[in-house]
Structures are given as C-alpha cells and as structure tokens.
Amino acid sequence: MNQIDIGSFLLDVKGAKALNESQVQEYADLGVGSYLNAPFLAPQDNRVNWNTSEYRAAIGKIQSMHTSSSLKIPILYGLDSVHGANYVQKAVIFPHAINAGATFNATLARMMGLYTGRDTKAAGIPWVFGPMMEPARHKHWSRIYESFNEDPTAVSILTSAYIEGMQSQKVAACVKHLIAYSNPIDGNDRSNVNASSYELLNYYAPPFKAAVDVGVMSVMGSYIALNGVPVAANELTSKALLRHDLGFKGMLVSDYGEMYLLRRDHKVVTSDLDAVDMSLNKTSYDMSMTPWDITFITHGQKLLQQRRLKRARLVESVARILKLKLQLDLWNQPVPGADVVESVGDAASKAAALAAGQESIVLLKNEEAVLPLKLPLSSLFLTGPSMDDVGYLCGGWSLYWQGTSGNGMFPNGISIRKGIETILGLNGTTLPYLGGVQMESGNITSADDFAKAKLFAQAATYTIVALGERTYAEDGGNKDPQELPPGFATYVEALAATGTKIILVLTEGRPRLLGRLPTLASAVLWAGLPGEMGGQAIADVLFGKVNPSGKLPYTYPQTDSFVNLASPYYMRNATHCINKVYGNVSACPTEYHFGDGLSYASFEYSSVSLSSKSLSYSSSKQKNTLTVSVTIKNSAAIAGQETVLLFMTPPPTRPTAETKLLKRFLKIWLGPGESRELKFDLQPQDWGYYSNEIGAGLATTSPSGTYTVFFKGSTDCNNQQQQQLCQTFEWSIPGSGVLPLQDPSKSPVSGGTLTHVATMAVVAAISALVAW
C-alpha cells in the first residue's frame, strides 16, 4: 500500500543515476508495493530522462529484488505520461489534452492514449497517471492544459476514448483527480474548492462515470479540501460517490504526499500517524503515494497494534492492489513491453501526434481572408519567443516536470520556424527571423533587435508573431498574472505600425488575457500546446496544407474579474455571466466563445428539424427518443472538416438554469459543394440531470417544460436571423419526474473480470498482512 518515489533511492554515479540497491532491498523486505517517477524531474547537467533500456534495467533489478523477497509480490511502477511518454527518451511528445479537446475527435484522443500507453510500457512501466478528468473551469488554473475541454460531455467522450486506447496496450490508466479539482476558489492550483451536490454530480462526476463504464483500472485523489473537507479524508467522495454511486471496483491511489497534507496544509490532525488513521478509516484509498519514505507502513503497523485500524480494512485495499497487478500480468511479465521497445519514436506515433496537432489548431480571426498564405510569397517576417522554440510548444510535463524551453533536447521537435521554412524551402526561400521579446517578462530582447524587427516588418507583407506562455506545471503556474506581459502588445503594435499584416499565433496552456493584441492582428490562430510536431502542424495550417478545423475548447475571457474567470460557457449568454444559485447577473466580456473556430471553407447549416414537437414519458425507449436533424453544406471550393456541435437549453425549472449545454458533437469531412444530413438521437437522460443526493445512487430528473435545441455555440435563438438553427419541443413527465438510471451495483466491474482474482487476492492480502 506504500508507494515510493524512485528519487528517494537513486545515487549520482559519474553523472548518471544508479539504484541504491541496499535501500531497494529494505523496501522489498518491508513490502513496499509500488514505485513512481522519472530520475530527472528538473534539469541537471543537461541530462534528460532515461531511455527505454535504462528504465527497463532499473525496473528489472527492482522487480528481481521484490519477487525474491519473502512476499514474492512484484511492484507496480507508475509514471506521469501526460502527453505521450514525456519522460522517456525519443518518445514523441503529443499535444496536451486541451488540444485534444479542440479537435473534438474521439478517434484522435484514442490514438493519443494508445501511443502514450505503448511508449510508457516500452520503458517497462504498465501504469500511467492520467488522463485528467476535470472539465476546464477556472481560467487561471494552471492545469487547464491537462484538461480535455470545458464541457463535461466532451470530456467524458474524449477521455473514455483515451482510456480505451491506453488500456488496449495492457497499461492501466489512472484517472484524476477526485473531484472538482479544476475550480479552485482563488484560481490557484491546490487551493480549496466549493461545489454543490448538483455541480458535483452534473459537471464533475460524468467524466468519472464514463471512465468507470469503459473499465478504467485506477483512480487518483487530490490535494484539495472540498466544501471544507479534505479529499484525503472525505467519505462522501471516495465511498459514497466513487464506490457506491459510480460503482468503481478498482484501485484508488492518493496524490503525491496527499495523506500527510491533512496535517501540513489542512491542519485537521496534529501528526502524520493521525493523518494515516483519518484517511484510511474515512476513505476507500488503497495506496498512499507517500512518497519519500516508508512511514506509511510504520504508521499502519502502529494503528493495527493500537486497534485504531481494522485488519479487514487493509485486506480490502490490498486485494484491490493485487487484483490490478494480476490484471497487468506482473507475475509473468514484471517488466512488460519488450515487444514495443523498437517502436518508440516511430513514424506511426509521429503521424498521430501531427494529426492531433493539425486538427487542434483554432482559427479565431481571418480578416480579408489573409490566411491561408499563398505561395510564392514576396516577403515574410517571423518573430516572437515561440517562433523557434519547441519547448514552448510542449509546455509543462515535457522532459521535466516544469518543462523546458529550447530545441536541442527534443529529438522529434519541429519549431514553427522550421515548419514554415520546410514549406517555403521548396522554393529556396530564406526568411528574416528575430525572437524580439522575452517570453516570461515580455521585455524587448535588445534595442538593436527592436530596430531590426521594425525594419524587417516594414519590408514584409506579412509578419507572423508567435507568443504565449512560459512552461510550467501544477502550482508552478500560480504566480503568473492572467494578462500576458504588456510588452507583447507594445512590440506587436510597433510592428503593425509599419504597415505589415500581423498574423498572431498563440501558444499557451490557458486563456491568458490578450489586451489589444487581437485588434492589432489580421489573423489569430490559437495553437494551445501542440507538442513536438506542433511547428509543422501550425505551418501546415498557415499555408493551407491543412484546413483548420479546431474549435475553441474553453471560454476565452477578456477581463480577469472573479466571475469572468470562474464561469463556464453554460453559465453565460453573449455578454453576461448568469448564476441562478446566487441570483447574480454580471457583465462578462468575452474575447472568444466556447466552440468558436473558423475554416478556409464555408459551412452552411439548414433544415434543422425535430422528430416531434411534443414528447411525453413512456416506458418505451423508442417513444422517448427525440431525433434532431440538420443539413450541413460546404459551399466553398475547398474541402474541409466541420465539428457539428448540438446544444440544448433547459427550462428555468432546472436548479442552475444553464444557458445551454452541449449534448452531441460530430466531426465530418465535406468536399467542395458537398452536403450531408445528420441525425442525432436524444433520450430523456440527455436533457435531464442527476438529482439524488450523493450516496443515494444515480437518478435523473427531466423536468417538464420547453426545451430548445440548436447548433453552433455562437447561436442566439432570440436573434431572429439565427432562429433557423433552433427548434423547441415540449416535454412532459407524470409524477415526480424522476427516471432511475442503471443500478450502481450492476455497473461493469472496472478493468473487466478475472476468474480467480478474488481468491488469489485475498490469499495474497492475508499473507502480506501476516508480515505486518
């Protein structure tokens, strides 16, 4: 049940990292069950993390020592492979999850999970701490880029596909973080969260339910206190919600040092012994990511001796841990993945990463159809701190925990500059380039550079400026203000004053305020954090090799008021944030809306219709089905992809009266002049909401009333010119309006079923506990 960071027993030997074997032997004799992490979490003498051979050798030695101990139980090794196997040398670093959210393409999400799992397993590691399940909520939160979307339905669909891809490689996904971690009160990572039962069940729980439904093998807790109760001691979240309501049968692991935060941060106990006592007795946690020592074991032994902890509680957790090890076949393959070692960094994974990057790029502005750029170009100037820096395209969790800038450490990396020059290199074109401004401060690099930049811009028809955020991870991003450095606008304004047309490329993990930057640009591309292949993806979109099809995966605020940063699209109209619970209506200027995204093609929506304008609840599923039809036509002379977003506005009787909610999405390809009719089937559960209290099982309420169905996030059904995209229907249901969902006791067993796992797990658990 004790998980140890490998950094606690690595030695520096001639510039390399080596195992302290006597320490490993001690851990093996004590029954440590799991290890985690990479050898280099921060830059050290320009070393990057191990290659597959180094990982496999170290893990092989650890496994040998553990399986030769008296317990003879293999360890479970876990790694933060957040976007590709980002801690394994030569593995392709994929776009971050927020980019996957912009694709609205579940197939690409599945491929991202598949290659992340495969390349992690190639290092002998069968357990990945991901994906993150939280919808992107507070816009200052520094982990937004690890989220798949702002919308709970989109997160549910995309993460389910990702999990299926990963676990198809016999690698266990570990979904995180239980629960509501993405809406900290002050926007800072690890700050506490307040959320009603309605919000927990309807905004934050659906992705976890979807994960359980596809058989996710493990779940991770979180650092926060939820409604004043630390998650590490929260019976409501880990027992009532996760185990009972969602039916999760798999293994639950704490976050890094989470149990001990009960004393150090939350201050609800006065000793680490009491912290372990509180956590194990109040929650269903199975494994403690302690992670620097074996005090969790000694505390557990003492609690047993003092009869403060029941042996049956430990058997329950050990059984779930051993079940996971059996599912991963660790007794037969303690260092899995030998068959895929040579695949790391292969053409297939590069192609998948490139496709994900290409489909994630969002075209937000395109005045006078300045894009795509046409060849041959008379003149072009490239500038900005992200223009020739692969590290800034990858962000945090890239080679190191906090990421790193530069190009040299990214063997598969293609910067934006390189991607553009590759396209133009066919004609032998050379391009002027200057970094121009510093990423973190926004300061001009030098007076000479500033003067040169203005001369280059004056001579250029087009100037492409790539800028955004420095690299960071977790609370390492808390300190940054919401607005991008003012020096960025000063620099771009000076370039624009020369008469060049500015094309702005944003490389950022969260929506930093842009100030006057959009007004200075003729075109704006949101690139997010598109990974190692991101430079090529961006260049392909700029020059029309790829028609942009990304849709903005979150609301992009224009100001940093609390309500503007904390309000998702479904608590907004075009100009205001609306919170029915608090009776608030506040002005919320928005730079860009959720679902915004232009194309070089032109897609026309027509013939929106419903199969019925009036529905009444029936025991027959067919009679409850509402079919929504729409015709999409590409009226342009070029082919393209369109993400069709279907929204619904509920009646005001709903507890929070959301302005709209995404219910379905589909990405389609249409050739020039081609049209296609789409049909979407909806059931009462789709327009209902979870209404029971947590712990009472899941049940949905679908209030009677008028519902509005419409397409495209920017549609205003009160605007007469847009009403052709909207339809309404009346729904009625007799009695309480409560529709029971699947009985949690009949939910699929996470990770599938095993014929003899239960017996073996209990026997092994008893053996392990006897040693205690």
From TrEMBL:
<dbReference type="InterPro" id="IPR051915">
    <property type="entry name" value="Cellulose_Degrad_GH3"/>
</dbReference>
<keyword id="KW-0378">Hydrolase</keyword>
<dbReference type="Pfam" id="PF14310">
    <property type="entry name" value="Fn3-like"/>
</dbReference>
<dbReference type="InterPro" id="IPR036962">
    <property type="entry name" value="Glyco_hydro_3_N_sf"/>
</dbReference>
<dbReference type="GO" id="GO:0008422">
    <property type="term" value="F:beta-glucosidase activity"/>
</dbReference>
<dbReference type="Pfam" id="PF01915">
    <property type="entry name" value="Glyco_hydro_3_C"/>
</dbReference>
<dbReference type="InterPro" id="IPR002772">
    <property type="entry name" value="Glyco_hydro_3_C"/>
</dbReference>
<keyword id="KW-0326">Glycosidase</keyword>
<protein>
    <recommendedName>
        <fullName>beta-glucosidase</fullName>
        <ecNumber>3.2.1.21</ecNumber>
    </recommendedName>
</protein>
<dbReference type="InterPro" id="IPR026891">
    <property type="entry name" value="Fn3-like"/>
</dbReference>
<dbReference type="InterPro" id="IPR017853">
    <property type="entry name" value="GH"/>
</dbReference>
<feature type="domain" description="Fibronectin type III-like">
    <location>
        <begin position="642"/>
        <end position="715"/>
    </location>
</feature>
<dbReference type="InterPro" id="IPR001764">
    <property type="entry name" value="Glyco_hydro_3_N"/>
</dbReference>
<dbReference type="InterPro" id="IPR013783">
    <property type="entry name" value="Ig-like_fold"/>
</dbReference>
<keyword id="KW-0732">Signal</keyword>
<dbReference type="InterPro" id="IPR036881">
    <property type="entry name" value="Glyco_hydro_3_C_sf"/>
</dbReference>
<comment type="similarity">
    <text>Belongs to the glycosyl hydrolase 3 family.</text>
</comment>
<dbReference type="Pfam" id="PF00933">
    <property type="entry name" value="Glyco_hydro_3"/>
</dbReference>
<dbReference type="GO" id="GO:0009251">
    <property type="term" value="P:glucan catabolic process"/>
</dbReference>
